[in-house]
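Worked example

This section walks through a single chain of length 346. The input is the sequence exactly as stored; nothing has been trimmed or padded.
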Amino acid sequence: MKRVKWLIPAVLGVVVNTGVQASDDVTYKQREEARQFIDEMVEKHQFDKAELSTLFAKAEKKQKIIDAISRPAERVLTWKEYREIFLTESRIAGGLEFLQAHQKALHAAEEKFGVPAEVITAVIGVETLYGKHKGRYRVVDALSTLAFDYPPRSKFFRSELEQFLLLAREQKFDPLSMYGSYAGAMGFGQFISSSYRRYAIDFDGDEKADLLENRTDAIGSVANYLSQHGWQAGKDVVVKAGVDEVEGKVKVVKTLKLDSRVSDLKDKGITFTSSAQGDDKARLLMLQGQHGNEYWMALNNFYVITRYNHSDLYAMAVYQLSQAIRQKSETMKSHETKAAESEVSS
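Given that input, the structure is written out below as tokens.
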């Protein structure tokens, strides 16, 4: 069987001991699980065994990655605490800046995929602060650590490690120089490797889908991802729900799936204002807000956002940030219009 060579630049050199904990100095060269994985990649995808052996001799186990994935913010924070991180004035202002700077690409994405420009912007804003924080872990370290040293999700991350190596080969990326989150997510929109391969698109016509450095491709790819997961153009995402008279009688199911219909919630005495139809799927959502419990009716587009990150807190942060950015943009346009009219009249 023909082996496909995959060259790793010699200039990368060796791993330097920087004085971190001993657990962070462990590479995967001698690990049986890594050896088996290498053999599978050679057999299944025709990688060169020597090249992969060189790579995994430099891939390091990182205890900090295991610590981080064991306590994600979405699991340990309340909505009040989570909101304070992502709904800040600086993040809203940064969103307006991003919206203005990439107006053409955002408009094109909205036209093609039906996803509002402010929602695309908010996803990138929540994920990486508009590209300022794209991750500080080498992706090969993150995925190797989680594939071989994190049993609860080793199967998933082993698959992502496979996808990462395929992605690096296809895109001619150097796998040792790619950085991302502790879970191996990369670029402006923090795509994991499988999502990168499946949903990344070339949106600027240069024949390469670059989500690491190309903002236009990132914008188009985020919109494509949401569209492929069922985004409905022009439909509500989530609306405030009134449950004052029925609180205690209404069961809030802790699932991301839309387990009810709009008509079902109305029949239970829950009140809300929405253009959603009675047979549209919906879910009653309860969050611990600044002034106590908040009730919301989550709809299809809210569920779509949770496909990006499986968390109600995340989806609500994206939604509310998008609305804050939109409001700030509309306010600015209104002021500009008034100023122009005042100038003309004078």
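What to look for: Residues 66 and 150 are 7 Å apart (CA to CA).
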